[in-house]
Amino acid sequence: MGHRLIDRPSPEYPVGLGDLEDPPSIFVDGEFREIPGVAVVGTRRCTRYGIDLAEAFGAAIARSGWTTVSGLARGIDAAAHRGCLRDGGHAVAVLGSGIDVCYPKENQSIFDGIVSGGGAVVSEYPPGTPPDRWRFPARNRIIAAMSSAVVVVEAARTGGALITARLAAEIGRPVFVVPGDVDRPASEGCNLLIRDGAYPVLGAADLIEELSLILGPPERDVAEEKEASMPTGGISLDDLPEFWSVTMTEALVRVGKLQVEGKVRREGEMIFPV
Amino acid sequence: MYAATTSVALVGGDVRPVEVQVHVGRQQDTFKLSGLPDTAVREAKDRVRAAVASSGMRFPNRTVTVNLAPADLPKGGTDYDLAIALGVLAASGEIPNPNGAVVVGELALDGTVRSGSATLGAGVLSARTKRPCLVANDSAADTAAVPGSTVYGVGSLAEAVEVLRLGLGQRDAVSPRPTPRPGNGPDLSDIKGQALARRAIEIAAAGGHHLLLHGPPGGGKTMLARRLPGILPRLTDHEAVEVALIYAAAGLRRGLDFSRPFRSPHHTASRAALVGGGSGVAVPGEASLAHRGVLFLDELAEFPRGNLDTLRQPLEDGFVTVARRGSTARFPSSFHLVGASNPCPCGFYGDRRKPCECRPAVLARYRQRVSGPLLDRIDLVVKVGRVEASEVAGPSGESSRVIRQRVEHAAEFRRDRPSETEPRARQMVLDALDSAVVTARGADRVTSVARTIADLALETRVEEDHMAEAMALRGEW
């Protein structure tokens, strides 16, 4: 389809953007689909735990048949896109630069994957626009408006993720937030949002369940896929026997089989359900 | 006038006979030494002269020429003193030619005989050539422990002379020192919990697999690694000699010990320290000192990559070739590699209590510090987690003795069992390859670990469950 500019009268124009005070014209590469979008956002200075969770959320949203929207930033954003792409989902990235400028460079493969995977890259800035810092908060309002709900995985006391959540709340989008340790900087913003009335998310399955109340039933029932029976945030191999109440050898045998069947994924010592 | 005695040189992990040829000519008082001696050997001239005088004998006032044959083999150390002294005395007609015995020992200026590093080599040569050997008293019992050797101990040059005058048959050979029982190292029953690591270490012991332990600081990685030698089968006579000779070549005394070596070089160790070096004469490194035992590399990610890569030759071939100016030697170097590492710079990745605070990029960089080719050769990668308070209070785990018995049974079982693989197990490997869960080399390693797991269960057939467990134990890190 190539690069194109979409104005408000166009039938392709995302309906949600109409909720903004100043609905912008947008440049698009790739394609939109007529399916609800869920924004997964968070800080760039995230923890490994946040990354794992964002990936799990992106994947769960993809499997449910919804679009994952994020900002292609380092950290949580990238992880959400990655999770979505891994499960063949429809991904939309809203950039603070022109749609032909990948920033940060390290996310080039995600950038390419989104377009080639049938997703879309969006920006209100003309192609060639460099990634200036001041443009990023503005693009957050597009992320919020294009989504039917916003999930904040990790957010500091200040920063883009918090701005996105507040903008989303202003235009009536439900905000879901992952609670965190009270003294961890990467969770401070999240906990503040919860105090202000955001929904705490208790895991990928819980998220999908809550979202289905808003978006309608998912394409596939995620709850049924819990065959692997493992915490979404992953579990370390040596904790599995206790989790499953089996011996170490039995647990190892089960993990080995699940690995080969592609139902779990290893990352270092951690095992994640796929 | 000419005489020759036999001594011994340590070459690589083996011994070579050295003929100490002595000629006493008619000219003026000179003492020449040839046969590529190093400084220590060259100084033998002074020690021998003094020791002979102190023992109340006459050092010939003539041209004394000593050649250590083969003359192109570099010689080092002080072990040739006694052989040279006896050769000189025989060549000048003071004593009968002792050409029957293998003679090794360092001389003090007062004539006392001491043992040098090659003493054990004399025992090995004695056993191999069925000749008696004459060594210092202080290490005679150790040397006699070499199976098949005949050892005579002497305390001084004068005593050695007397023994030779009377003939060796007039004396009783030294009886071997009772060998220490193996397994007196730390015991696995000291370690509570850690079911995963215990399982992995048992499989590693039974199949000779390399192992990587990772986990938060203070979890007990080092404790576990130190207990691996204790669950390995005891060394055979042949192996114990082999190991002792390597130690001797490094100038270390180990005697004939049937327990497995445990070496744990620090991450600042140089390449030469790891795989061998030495100036002139080649000296074995940690990789060879760990032969038949355990080479433990703590803080694996802190070792410079290049240094770790030097371990690839021993891991692949079971020996190290050390080329030095003076000689090239090949040392056996077949060991269990056990690596330990924090999972990430902060140490808490995968911890059930404390979240890891490392940024993903930092984490990725940390992991890349260990070279891929080395990791490829490590079959078992497991976590050693923090032990919970409830586990500390819990019952002790199995003792090393019990586990060693299972390991020995598995080894015995393997010796003459046919090996089959259940079709479903084979299919599982193919599926894993298809879905890129393992690489081709990984599939090889997994299959080999599965075979070991089956051996521990005394099963000739490798079943699907064995394969699955092997798959799970090959975590990446």
Q: Can you summarize this structure?
A:
With 274 residues, chain A is α/β, with parallel strands linked by helices. Chain A is built from nine helices and twelve strands. Chain A binds chain B through residues 45-49, 51, 75, 181, 184, 236-239, 241, 247-249, 251-257, 259-262, 266-270, and chain B through 194-197, 199, 214-215, 343-344, 349-352, 355-360, 363, 367, 382-383, 385, 428, 431-432, 435, 437, 464-465, 467-473, 475-477.
Oligomer: heterodimer
Order of strands in the sheet with most strands of chain B? 11-14-17-10-18
CATH domain class name of the largest domain in chain B: Alpha Beta
* Termini gap of chain A: 32 Å
Indicate the low-confidence ranges of chain B by residue numbers.
none
For the largest interface, the chains and their residue counts are: A-B, 33 and 41 residues
How many separate structural domains of chain A? 2
Could you tell me the number of beta strands of chain B?
20
Shape of chain B: elongated
CATH superfamily of the largest domain in chain B, please? Answer: P-loop containing nucleotide triphosphate hydrolases
Number of helices of chain B: 20
Mean pLDDT of chain A: 88
Instruction: Tell me about the largest β-sheet of chain B.
Output: 5 strands, parallel
Q: How would you state the average pLDDT of chain B, rounded? A: 87
